[in-house]
Amino acid sequence: MTTHNEDYYERQYKFERNFIRIPFVVFAVIVLLCNIFFADINIMLVLFGLFFLYNGGILFIAFIKHFKRATILTLILFILSLALFGTLMYLYADANHLLDKKHGL
User: Fold this and answer.
1) Residue 103 carries which DSSP code?
2) For residues 41-53, average pLDDT
3) Three-class SS of residue 78?
4) The dihedral of CA 17, 20, 26, 29: what is its sign?
5) DSSP-based three-state secondary structure for 40
6) Beta carbons of 86 and 34 less than 8 angstroms apart
7) Distance separating alpha carbons of residues 13 and 28, to the nearest angstrom
């Protein structure tokens, strides 16, 4: 039974390392470089949209593989990326005057 638990925790650790830690650091570097060189809301919207979809995917995989700790971690990351993506969508709509109400029609 002990080897089964050790294998489980080892697989969970490798999953967290390969699909959460390393890609998040790479994503942070990409966002940093894009903010420095291309400060455009459209690029950030695309990047954080992809980030949101990636978090949804790893949440699904962690849930299917029954990784309890990784599932809770990815659920928190999914909710935070949803909030960030929603905020960027709002800022995009506000910057392009899509929220203005038109009078007269």
Assistant:
1) S
2) 90
3) helix
4) negative
5) coil
6) no
7) 21
Calpha distance 67→95 (Å, rounded): 41
How many other β-carbons are positioned within 10 Å of the β-carbon of residue 13?
13
Say what the pTM is: 0.83
Instruction: Give me the pLDDT at residue 1, please.
Output: 60
* Dihedral sign (CA 46, 47, 51, 52): negative
Cα–Cα distance for residue pair 54/28, rounded to 1 Å: 14
Q: How far is it, in rounded angstroms, from Cα 34 to Cα 92?
A: 17
| Average pLDDT of the residues of the chain | 90
Average confidence (pLDDT) over 51-56: 94
